[in-house]
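re: that chain from earlier
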Amino acid sequence: METKNHIEQLELFSSLMAKTKQRKKLLVDQNQFDKSPTLFHKFKQLARVIYHSYLWDDEQILKAARILYPYIGFKTCASQENRKVIETRFVSDKTQMKLKLFGKSDQTYCRSIYYKLERNQYYKRFLILSDAKELVAHYTDTYYRCNKPFVRYSYISKEYLLGYAYLISNIKAKIYGKDAHWISLINFELKDVFKGLIAGTRSKNYAYYDYVLAHLNIADKRQQEIVRDYKLMQELYLSIGKENKLVRWNGLVSYKQLIDYIHNFLDSNFIVVPTKRSLIPKPKERAFF
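^ sequence. v structure.
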C-alpha cells in the first residue's frame, strides 16, 4: 500500500551551529603548535593548551576522572544505575605498591585514582595518571594482571585528563542546554565520538573512531528508524512543523554531524595562538568545569 508519509533525516544540529562572537585566546609554544586540521589532533592540542593555561587542584583532578569514566575502556557505563560512579579518590602510596599500579620508567609522576561504584563490583577500577611517553598511544585501553584479575586499570596523563574533561563538560553543557529534547537520540554517537577523541592511537576506542570516519558514507549496522508511540511521533511532527512525516534516525549520519558540530564548537570558542615560549605567562586563573 502506498503511503503519503515522507521520510527524511532528522536534523538535530541546525539550531546549534551559530558561531559565538567571542573566542577564548590560548597561547601555545610555537614549537609545539599543531596545524593538523583533523578534529582528533585539534582536540588533543586544545586539551594540552587548556591544561597549561589554568591552575588546577586535586579536587578538579578527581572530578575530571569522573567526567571521563564513561569514555574509558571499562566494560561498564557510568550512566547505568547499578554501575554509577559515586566517588573518585586517590590511592595511597602503600595501596598503589600493593596493587602494582605502576607506569613506565620515563615518567615524572605516577598517581592512581580509584573509582568507587554505587554497588560493590568484583572488578576494581583505577585510572593511573602518568606522563610516560610510551603510554600515550594506549590511553583509555584497560589492563589487568594475571595474579590480580580483580584489578582493572587504564592510563592517561594529568594534562590530558583535565583538558579533556574541560572540553567535554563544556560541549555537553552546550548540547544539553540547547537541544535537550533530542539528546536521547544521539547519546550513543556522542559517547563514541568522545571515546575516540580522548583515546590513544593504538587503543580499541580509537580503532572504532577511525573506522567510522573512513566509512561515513556506508550504511551502518546501528542505522534504524525511530519507532515511538503515537504521542512521541506527534511531538516529532509538531517540532519539525509538518504533518504526515516520518523521521528516520541514522546513527552514522548523526556521528558525522557530531564531528562537524564539535569542530565548529572548538573553532567558535577557542583560538590557539603560537607564541614564543618566553612570552607565555604563567597561569594565574583557576579553571572550573
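The two ends are 54 Å apart (CA to CA).
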